[in-house]
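Repro:
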Amino acid sequence: MLKKLSRAVADVVTPDPLESLHSKLSAARTVLTGAEASFDAAAVTAELSDDPAAADARDVAGRDAAKARGRVRQLEGALRAAEADAARRAKDAAAADVARRWGELDRHAAARLRAARDYEAAIAAAAEALARVEDATAAIYAAVPVADTDGALLRQGIIASVARLTAHKAGMSWAQGAWPWGADTIETLVPRIEAGNARLFAQRPK
């Protein structure tokens, strides 16, 4: 926070060099315009007068105008150099930003590929585990010695349906299917199977 505040204060206190040079050059050109006008007036007066003081005034005005022209040339040269330097720095900054973005792209691309591999491995493992759930369900259906199997998750397609809702509750919104009541209301595969097993075994003879 303190560093950010310091930078903000520096931005306010430190003038922009180009802006400062533009301001100085504008002021110098105003001075030059006035000096040249004074020289022209003094030159006319000197031409129309035999007074040595008029010639002296013309010479002083000429020196002032020459000095003002030199100042303008100096500032114009400084401004050109500053603009070239600013352009160079802007080009370097743009190149550095491009390099930084490519570096970020490298990192993000590698991270995405790792995540995709993890996802495919997890999906393969989930598919294998779900197949085992389906196989065990089919075996239970074939072996169950009671007629009341309601709630035991033995109906055709019920395991896949509950598995899809389980994936939705885990954050896979695309797996929602026909469930408009919100993910927090979903009872996932494990508690559903636990409850189904309990319903079956509640019918076992004592």
